[in-house]
Batch of 3 targets.
Target 1
Amino acid sequence: MKKADEQEKLRQIEGGVTAARGFTANAISCGIKNPKAERLDLALVYSTEEATTSASVFTTNRMRAACVQVSEKHQRAGNLRAVIVNSGNANACTGARGLEDARTECRRVAEELGLKVREVGVCSTGVIGLPMPMVRIEPRIAELCAGLAQGKGHAVASAIITSDTREKEEAVSFTVRGKEVRVGSCCKGAGMICPNMATMICLIATDAAVERAELKKLVRECVETSFNRITIDGDMSTNDTCIVLANGASGVRLAPGKPGWNTFRAAVQHVMLQQAWRIVKDGERITKFVTVRVKGARSAAEAKAVAKGVANSSLVKSSWNGGDPNWGRIIHAVGYSSHSVNPEKVDIDIAGLPACRGGVQADTPCDQLRERVQADSFEVLIHLHQGACDHTVYTTDLSPEYVDFNRSEYAYWNQAKQDGLTR
Amino acid sequence: MKKADEQEKLRQIEGGVTAARGFTANAISCGIKNPKAERLDLALVYSTEEATTSASVFTTNRMRAACVQVSEKHQRAGNLRAVIVNSGNANACTGARGLEDARTECRRVAEELGLKVREVGVCSTGVIGLPMPMVRIEPRIAELCAGLAQGKGHAVASAIITSDTREKEEAVSFTVRGKEVRVGSCCKGAGMICPNMATMICLIATDAAVERAELKKLVRECVETSFNRITIDGDMSTNDTCIVLANGASGVRLAPGKPGWNTFRAAVQHVMLQQAWRIVKDGERITKFVTVRVKGARSAAEAKAVAKGVANSSLVKSSWNGGDPNWGRIIHAVGYSSHSVNPEKVDIDIAGLPACRGGVQADTPCDQLRERVQADSFEVLIHLHQGACDHTVYTTDLSPEYVDFNRSEYAYWNQAKQDGLTR
C-alpha cells in the first residue's frame, strides 16, 4: 500500500535521459550499425555537475565485453560523469585490442570534456567477436563532445537501439518540500540484438543528490525486481549494463529515512520496471507479453527456478505463440525446474481461469481458456502450495519469425571484412 | 581401444525389439493417436522365458506420468516380463484416475498372460493432462495379448512413434564361446511429441542371461552416455523411460569379469547410442545434427553445464539453422553456463576449423567456416583449458518450422472432448 502511495506522487514527464536538469547529450551517425544508411549509432550522455555520483550493474556472464570490464573498473574507482555508447558492435570477445579500444573511447571523451578517464563509462551493443571499427569512431569523438546540448535525449534513445522497433524512454518527476526532482532514462532491448546479442543497456539520469553508497544499494535492489525479472530467450548477454547518474542539480539531497527517499525509490523502480516491460514487449518478433507468477514455493530459489523454467521453455513459448492454453506443457516445465515440487499440489491459472487443480485438469472448458490466451498479454499463475515464497518473471512467446530473424549475422561479418577487421 | 575392439565383434541384425530369441510382440490400432486413421497405437512386448530379468531408467522430471510411477513400482518389486505401450496419450498429470488406468492396463495384460501384475510394465506417450481413453484401450487388451507372435518387432516400432517421421530399430548380435547372443530394440523420439511431449521410450530385449543387479548397473551406465547426452529443446519429459529385458533364451550367462561381458556392454552401449542419435536426427523439423564436445573443464559438472548451455541456447541453435558459424553466440552461451570459465583461455573449433582462439576470433576465413556449417552434421569443440574433464552432448538446430509445429495441440483436446474426457 505504501509503495502504491509513493507511486501516486510520480508525474510522467518528457525528455528521456536528459529530462533531469544538468544533463546534456549528443548522438551522431558513424556507420557502425550500417555504413550505407544514416543511422545514429554513437551517443554521449554528460552530467554538467561536478558533484555527480553514479552506480552501475553489469552482466554476470563470464564473457564480459571489453566495455563492461572498463566501465566497471571506472565505476569502482569513483563516480562516472559521462557515458559513451555505440550500437552495431558489442566489443565483446575482442581480447586485448577490445580493452584498448574501450579505453581509447573513454580517454578521448575525457580529453574533450576535461574529465578524468575514470569518470567516463563506455557501453557497446551489437555483434559479438568482431573488433570495434575504431576507424569510424575515434575521429568523430571531438564532434560528438562538441555537440553536447540539452534536450537531445531522444537522439540518444535512437542511437543505442539496434533490432528494437522503437525508442525506449521513460521519465518522471516528483516534489520534495516544494522542489522538483526528475528521473529520466533511455534503454535498448534484450530481444537479442544485431540481429542478436541480448545486449540490454539502460542509462538513468536524475538531478537528485544521492550518496554513492546509498545509490548503489538502491540501484541493485531496483534492478533485481525489474531487469532481472525479464527473459525473452534465456540467453544472458555479455554486455548487459545499467548505469545511474545522480547529479544533484535539483538542489534536493535524498537519503534513506529522510523526506522524499521513498518516493525517489518508487521513481527509480517505476522507471526500471517500465523500461524492462518495454524491452519484453519489443522482443524480437514476439506476439505475446506473458507474466509468469509463481507462489507458494519452499524457497526463493525454487520460486525463481520454476518461474524461469516455465518462461524459458521452448515448448511452452511455442504454445503461447499458437494461442494454445497448454497447461500440460507448463506443468511439465515446472516438473523439471524443481526437485521438490509436489505434483499433486500444483494449481495453474491461465489468464485468470483455473486450468489445473491439484496437478490435474481443472473444470474450465478448454474453449474458454483458449479464448483468453488469444489476448496480447496475460498472466500464468502457478501455485505450488508448499511454502510462502514467490517470484515473478515477465516474458514472451517464441515465434517462427524469431528463429528466422536470428538465423544469420552474415551481413555484419561481410561489413567487417570490408573494414579489414576480419578475414 | 578396447571398447573399439569389442564393438568390432558386433554384427548388425534385423528384427528390432524381437530380434532376440524368446520375445514375442503385437501391435494394434485403437484410435488413441487418431480415431479416424488406422494407425497402430497399442503395443505389447513379452518374454516367453520365466527367468527374465529386467532393469529400467525413468525420467527425473518431478511430474512423473502415471505409467512411470506404476512401472517403477513394478520394476522395484522384481523383474518385468511384459511391457504394454500406447501412443497418443501420455497419461501424465492425470491424478488418481491416471494411476488407476495404468494399473488396469497391467492387470488386464497379467490376466491374459498368466503373469503377476508386477511383472508387467506400462509406457505411454502423447499429450499431457488428458485422461487415458480407456474406453478405447481396455476392451482391446485380450486381442492384443492373443496376437503375440515372433517377428512383430517392426509393428511395435510403428505403434510407439508419434511425431517421429520413421520407426527406430536397432539390433546386434555377437558370439560368446560359439553361442550367439542378440540385443534388439525399438524406440521413439524426444523431438517432442504429439505434437509435443519429449516423451522418449526405449525398449531393449536381449536373450542373454544377466543377474538383475548387474543388468541395472550396466543399463544406468549406458543410459548416462547415450540418452542422457541428447537434447533437442531442453525440455525434459514427464514420461522418459528405458526398459531392458534379459531372458536368457540364448543359453549364455553373462557377468562382469566373465567372457563376453565387455562385448555385451559394448552391444547395449551401441544400441542405446544409435537410438539416441536417431532420436536427435529425427527431432521435430530439425535440419542439423550437432555434436557439442567440451574439453578441459575443471569439473564434470562444469563440462556438462557448458555443453548443455550451448546445446540449449535458442540463439546458437537459430544460427545453426541459418548455416551461420557464429562462434560469438557460442562463447556467449559458454559465459553464462559456467561461473569459473576463463574467457581468455577459450578455444572453439567449428566443424574441424579454428573459429576462436583465446577468447577472440581465430584466423580462419569466415567463408571457410560458413561452408563447413552448411553440412547436415558437424561438431563444435569447446576447449576451456582449465582442467581435465570433458562432456559431449548431441543436439540439433532450432527451426522456424519447429516452433510452427508446436504451436497448438488443440486437435487433441477436441478429440478428448468428443470422448467425454474433457469439457
Note: The CA atoms of residues 172 and 262 of chain B lie 14 Å apart.
Target 2
Amino acid sequence: MSRYPTTVSIREVGPRDGLQNEAIVPVAARVALIDALSGTGLARIEAVSFVSPTAIPPMAGAAEVMAAIERRPGVAYGALVPNLRGARDAIAAAVDEIEVVVSASETHNLRNVRQTVAESLGGIADVVALARPAGVAVEGIVSTAFGCPYEGDVAPERVAQIAGHLIDAGCTTLGFGDTTGMATPTRVEALLDALVTARVDLGCVGLHFHDTRGTALANVLAGLERGIARYDASIGGLGGCPYAPGASGNVVTEDLVHMLHDMGIATGVDLDRLIACAEQAQRLVERELPSAMLHAGPRTRLATR
Amino acid sequence: MSRYPTTVSIREVGPRDGLQNEAIVPVAARVALIDALSGTGLARIEAVSFVSPTAIPPMAGAAEVMAAIERRPGVAYGALVPNLRGARDAIAAAVDEIEVVVSASETHNLRNVRQTVAESLGGIADVVALARPAGVAVEGIVSTAFGCPYEGDVAPERVAQIAGHLIDAGCTTLGFGDTTGMATPTRVEALLDALVTARVDLGCVGLHFHDTRGTALANVLAGLERGIARYDASIGGLGGCPYAPGASGNVVTEDLVHMLHDMGIATGVDLDRLIACAEQAQRLVERELPSAMLHAGPRTRLATR
C-alpha cells in the first residue's frame, strides 16, 4: 500500500500569482483563462487579488473579472486581499474564499506590506471577523515559510508559531508559501514536524512551491510522504516574467497533475484539457512557458516512428 | 535522524550524454570542460564514448579527448562503448570505467543498436571478459528502465531480470536509465522493490534521470528514500538540443548538488566551481541551458536590496 494520499486537491493560482508577475493581460483574456481552467475539473481557483491597481497593475479589474467569469458549480473562486478594504471588495464580488498573507520574516513583511508581522496578524483578524460571518472561507498564508530572500533561513518554529496565530484568528485553512523558491525536501519535512509539534492539524495545510531552484516537485513529494493533500500550482508555470525581477513561476499545474496521476493519486483534473489551458496561457504571455507537458507531452504519448 | 544517505556520489555525464545531443563541440573545448569538471570535486566523469563518428558526430575524437585531458588523481574517467571494438579502443585510451548499455525494451534495443536484448547481453559479456582482466570497471546500464517511448510501460520485473544478467556477466556496478524521462517517484520505488526481490545489491545501483517531464529531482528523492547513493547528472542540463529530436537533458548537476547540500547530504563537490562549469558549458552550446542555478543562483545567495 502506498503511503501517499489517494486524492490531492490542487488550487490553480495562475490567474493571480502567475499573471501578477507577467506583463498586463486584458480582463477578457483573464476571464477566458479562468473559465477554461474551471472546465478542467480543478475545484479551487485563485482568480484575482483586490489590491491597489497602482501597486500591481496586472491585477487591476478584479471586480470586473469576478463579474464576468462563469461561476461553475463545485468550483471555489478565491481572491487574495491585502487589507479590510480588499476584503470588503472581495465579499461584494461574491468570492468563495479570501486569502490573507503574512510573512514569516519581519524584513520581508516590512518590505512587502510596510507592516510588522504583529500588525499584519492584527489586520488578518479583522478580515476574518468580516469574512466568516459573511460565509466566506479564509485561508491564512505564511509566506517565506521556507526561507527569506533578505534574512535567509527561517526557523520552522517561527512559521509554526505564526500558523497558530492564524488558526486562533479564525482562518479556515492554512497555506505555506515558498515565496522565492528556497525550499528543499528536508525543509518541508522540518516545517511539517514543527506544525505537528505546535498541534496544527495537517489536514488544513496547503503547500505553495515556486520552482525557482528546480525543487518544486521534489518538495511536493516530501509533502505527500507526510500525507499533505493540498497544493497550489500555476498553469503553464505562469509567473516567471523577466519584467518582474526575482519572480519565478509556481510549480507547473499540468506537470504536477501528470506526476500525481502516474503515481496513482487522483486529482479530479483532466490532463488533456489542462494542457490546452497551458497553451492558452502561453499565447497570453507571448513567451515560452516552462511547462514540461507543453514541451514533451505526457509520458503516455508514445513515439509514432 | 534522516533516513537519507549521508553521502551521495555523482557521476557527471555532460561531456558524453549531454554533448552527444548537442551541436558538435570541438575536442579542445570538450577537454577544457572535462578538466574544469574534474576540478570541482566530482569523482566520476563520463568523458567520451567510443562509437562510430559517422553515427554520432559529436562524439568523434574520443581517443584524442582522453589523451589530452588532465588525469586528476582520484577521478574516474569513463567511456560508453557499444561493442568489443569500442571496448578495445577505450582500454587503449586508459579509461577507468567502461559503460555498456542494453535496453529493457526489445523495440528500443532493436531501434537503438539493431540487436535483440539477448544479443546485446551476449556482447556485454564479451566486453566484460575483455575489460575486467585489464583492470577496468564495467557498469552495466539498463536503458528505458522506467518506460519506453515505443512500448510504453516497462515491467520492473523485466528490468530486474536484465540487471541479474548484467551482474552474472560480471558487471561491477549497475545503472538504470530513464532514457526519455518517463520515470515518476512510484516507478522508482517499484523498480527498487523489484531489484530487492531479485536479490540485486542496491549498493551497486546508480540512477540516471532525464528531466523531460520535470520529475528528475523528485525521482532522485524517491531513490534517496530507499538509500540509493549514486546518481548521474549533466552539467548545466546539457543534452536537450533542439537538433536532436526527442532529446532532453539529464537532471542538472548543479541543481542536484544544491538540493543535496541543503538536505545535509555531502557530495564532495564545490557548488560555486560547478556553477562556473555550467557557465562554461552554456558558452559552448551557445544557448540558454535549463540550469536553475544559472538563472537564480543558490538559495544562500540573498537579495542585496
Note: The radius of gyration of chain A is 18 Å.
Target 3
Amino acid sequence: MANYLQQFKLPDPFVFHRGGTISNAMLAYETWGALNDDQSNAILLLTGLSADSHAASHGPKDTAGWWEFMIGPGKAIDTNQWFVICASSLGSCKGSTGPCSPNPKTNQPYRFDFPDLTIEDIAHSTVLLCQSLGIQQLHTVIGPSMGGMTALALVLNHPGYTRHLIHLASGMASPPFSTAIRSLQREAILKDVNFNEGHYSADAWPEEGMKFARKIGMLSYRSAKEWDERFPRSLKKVPNQAFGTEFPVESYLEHHANQFIHKFDPISYLYLSRSMDWFNGNGYAKSGENPLKDKGLVSALVVGAHTDLLFPVHLQKELHALLLSSDSESELVIVDSIQGHDAFLVDKTTFTELVGRRLNQTMGSVCN
Amino acid sequence: MANYLQQFKLPDPFVFHRGGTISNAMLAYETWGALNDDQSNAILLLTGLSADSHAASHGPKDTAGWWEFMIGPGKAIDTNQWFVICASSLGSCKGSTGPCSPNPKTNQPYRFDFPDLTIEDIAHSTVLLCQSLGIQQLHTVIGPSMGGMTALALVLNHPGYTRHLIHLASGMASPPFSTAIRSLQREAILKDVNFNEGHYSADAWPEEGMKFARKIGMLSYRSAKEWDERFPRSLKKVPNQAFGTEFPVESYLEHHANQFIHKFDPISYLYLSRSMDWFNGNGYAKSGENPLKDKGLVSALVVGAHTDLLFPVHLQKELHALLLSSDSESELVIVDSIQGHDAFLVDKTTFTELVGRRLNQTMGSVCN
C-alpha cells in the first residue's frame, strides 16, 4: 500500500474555519484510474471518521481497502472510467496532519494546541488537493457517514466545484441522539487516567478509554435487528469472575473493541468526533431559506437505511427535500438493509447497484 | 411515606432459583385500597429496575409515587375498587434485602456473596408476599419493563396464581442490543476505581461509574425522535475547557446522571441489571413449544411503543402470538408515543386509558 500513498503539502499556513493555523501540513492520499484530458472524470471519495485513504487495493499484491468491493476495474466505481481520489481526513493521523503530528514550533505533538477542527476544514483541504491535481471541477463527490457531511460542506463552501453528489448514511447535521453517543465516547477517552490530558504515550496508552468508546460506538453501527439474528438467546459461557463476559454480544463488543484500541489516535478521535457534532449545514441559511440553493449541483443521490440509528432516515428525507427545492435534481433511496449505519460497508449488492447505476446515469457529462 | 412502608419477612432460608440461600430476608412493600372478602380484587404491581415500592402517595400529605397518575381513588387503577400491592424488588436495596444488606453470618454487607439473583427470585418473593396477605389468586399482575419480565416469570413458575396480565414495554427475553447497553452500564460501574470490587463506602462512592452508567442507560429510555424535539440544533454554550460540555443533550445527560448517582446502590444495580439479561421466558419450553401454554392465564394486555429501543415491538408481538396460541385471550396495542421505553411513565393519557379500560373489562370477575 505504501507505494501508492501520496502526499499533498497544504498551503503554508493552512487557515482553519474557526480560526487558528498550522504550518507544514499535508494530506496523505491515494488515487485510482487516470484523469482524462479535460479532467471531467474525477470522483472525490470522502471517508467516514475512522477510515483512511486506502479505500481499495491498487493491484493483486496490494492489501484490500475499506471499500474494496466498490472500487476497481469493472466495479461500480470503475477505475477504467473514473479517476478516483481518496485522502485521509485532515486531523485523522492516518498519514495526514493531525493533533498527534509534531508542531513545528515545539517539535512536540500539537495535542490540544491543534486548532479546532471542523468538517469544513476537511472539505477545504481536499478541495485544495484536487485543485493541485489539475481538477477544475469534480464530476462527483461521494461521501458516506462523516464523509457525507464533508461532501455537504464542500457543496456549501465551494459552489460549483462538484457537479454531482452521492450522499450515503449521513445528513445536514447530527441529531441529539448521535451527539449523545459521540459525547459518551469522548467522555470515555477523556476520563481514562492514561489519557492524561493528551500527554499519553505508547507505553501508557488510554486503552480502557478507547476500548469503551468503541463499544459505545458499536451500539450505533449496526442495528438491533441484525444483532437479533447474529446472537442466539441461549447463553454461551460461564464467566470466570463475578460479572465477567458471559453473553455472546459482550464477547463481540470486546473482540472488536480490542482490535480498535491501537488503530486510532485518541486525540484525533476526539477532534473528528466533535467536528461531526459541530457541523450544521442548515446554519448556512437563515431559517426558512434553503442553504443548498445556487450551489451549482446538477444532481444528487441520497441514500439512507431504515435501520440506521446514527443518521436516521428523516435526515436523508430532509436533505432530499432541500435538494429538490434547490436547483438540483435529487433521488432518495431508503434501503431495507438490516446492517444499520454500516450498510454501505456491508450490503455490497444494494450499494454497488445504487452507486454504479448513478455513475452510469451521469457519465454522459464525461468526455472520454 | 415511611408510615405506609410495610415489611414482609421471607421464609428462612429463602432459596434462590440458581442456588444459594439468604436468612432473615425481607421485602419492603406498600398497599393501596382494601382487599375484599373473597380476595378477588388484588392487583400486584411489579416494578422496573430502579423503581421502589412507592408507586403512589397514600394521601394528600404523602410524597408522589413513580406512577402517581395511574394509581389512586378514581384513577385508572382505582383504589376504591382494587387492592394494590407493590414491593421493592428483592435485591434492590430500596428497603428489601439485597447485596448491600448485612449478611447475618458476618454482619458485613453481602456484596458479591449475595446469591445470583434472577427475575424468577423477584417473582417468587412477591408471590410469597401476596400469599402472606391471604391472597389465593391475584386478579391481575401489572408489570412494566423489568416488571413485565417478572410478571412472566410469575406466570411461568406459579401457574394459575394470576388470572390477568398487563404487560408493558417488556418481553420474553432481552434482545442483544439491550443486553449490550446494560453490559456497558455494568462495565462502567465495575471499572470505577472507587467500586473497589464491591468494597466502596459512602466516602468513596463509585460516582463516576454510576454517572456514566446512567448516561448510557439514558440513550435507551426515551427516543431519538423525542430528543429531536427536545434539543434544538443551535449550540448552547462555549465549553470552559477542551471538550467540555457544549451541546444541550450533554447538559441533559449530565443533569439526570448527577441526580441518580446516590439514589441507587451500585452492586444492587449490577445484580438487577444482570437478572434482566439472564431472563429467558422462551427457555421454559422446548424449541417449537409454547412456554405459556396451560399457565392458567385468562387474559392479557400487551403494550409496546414503536419508539422503544430497549424492548422493541417485535418482542410484544412475539409475546402476543404466544398468548394467542396458548389458552389465554390477548390484546396487543402498539402505541405511537414518542417517549420510547419511558412512555408508560410519561404518556399519561395513553397509558391510563389502556390500563383503566382493561381493568374495567376484567372487573366482572371481581366479587364486590
Note: The first helix of chain B runs from residue 119 to 132.
